[in-house]
Amino acid sequence: MPFSRTIAAAALLLASGISAPAQVAMLSSGNTLDDPRSILVSKANLPGDGFIVVRAEIGGGRLAPGALATVPVRAGTVSDLRIPLARPAKPGEALVIRLHADFGQKGVFEPGKDPPVLEHEVKAK
What we know:
Oligomer: single chain
Structural class: mainly beta
Shape: globular
CATH class: Mainly Beta
Mean pLDDT: 82
Low-confidence stretches: 1-22
Distance between the termini: 23 Å
Number of domains: 1
């Protein structure tokens, strides 16, 4: 994970009241999809409960409205999590995987209240 993303994640978590300095969010996945119907997240770590959200990129850094997948994750480390997509990824399409903290209503993904902590982009073959 790039150093700047690690620092940004730590700053966001500390500013949000999560005070354990050793607890830093982490997200890892391949750079290409092996199956257009799902994404494999090799590892995700969050000091508190949160969500993994997958959205399509529509160009210029903008994301398409609506999520292709939203999966709750518990605090700690998750490994080899296969996430089914609401629709198959199109050839060459860029998908953005975001790890969000759960700061709103617990267990309910709320885009305005549950901030993204980290993101990773993958491309469909």
